[in-house]
Write a structure and sequence with these properties.
The protein is built from 6 helices and 4 strands, in the order H-H-E-E-H-E-E-H-H-H. With 205 residues, it is mostly helical. The strands form 2 sheets. A two-stranded antiparallel ribbon has the order 1-2. A two-stranded antiparallel ribbon has the order 3-4. Strand 3 (136-139) and strand 4 (142-145) form a beta hairpin.
Length: 205
């Protein structure tokens, strides 16, 4: 999972359009208007840059496991008022955002909804508001929940790990391949790289 420090910036024209919507409605996001398409193109371009073309949740290269999508952390069918809120936007792979993973699940803690997005609390680790490295530790391609968390933090970490299947073998194997590509392949022979990949997978298994 990624820590996000930079968020989308809207142009003056785009800000004016969004402000003119008042409280956004669900259908506004897919209105088909030319300016709205331009806004979404700008959102996607910026997020791909900030995230180094990786999925905010699984951390894998976008396009590797599935296509890239603009993700609403608080789902827009429940919280359309936040569909243009910059810290509610991230790029995810379709796999993490599918119905079997996050899909349309509510990520805002029951009873914590607020008119101000940053006053809401979330059931999952939030890439803008939480320190991902505080909640998770990694050993090679394997992600584990950090020790020493409070009970509430551990619940949030567990919710995140389970929702996105971050410890499932398919994710572990893909992360192992990505690690090899980013590090090992630059320094070792193909045979050595394959040996390390098998070691990662057998260690997890």
């Amino acid at each position: 999972m990624l820590n996000l420090n930079d968020h989308v910036k809207y142009s003056r024209v785009h800000k004016k359009y969004i402000k003119g919507l008042g409280i956004p409605k669900y259908e506004d996001w897919d209105s088909g208007k030319k300016i709205n398409k331009k806004i979404k193109e700008s959102i996607k371009k910026q997020l791909l840059f900030w995230q180094n073309e990786k999925c905010v949740y699984c951390g894998l290269k976008l396009g590797g496991t599935s296509r890239a999508e603009i993700e609403h952390i608080a789902p827009r069918h429940l919280y359309p008022e936040f569909e243009y809120t910059t810290k509610n936007l991230a790029m995810s792979c379709q796999f993490c955002n599918s119905s079997s993973k996050k899909g349309r699940k509510d990520t805002v803690t029951v009873g914590s909804k607020n008119i101000y997005y940053n006053k809401c609390t979330f059931t999952i680790v939030h890439p803008y508001f939480d320190d991902v490295d505080h909640y998770f530790e990694s050993e090679g391609a394997i992600i584990r929940i950090s020790s020493g968390l409070t009970s509430d933090e551990e619940v949030k970490a567990r919710n995140t790990l389970d929702m996105f299947g971050l410890s499932e073998s398919c994710h572990v194997e893909e992360r192992a391949k990505q690690l090899l590509w980013e590090t090992v392949m630059k320094e070792r022979t193909l045979d050595e790289a394959n040996e390390i990949l098998l070691k990662y997978i057998s260690t997890y298994a």
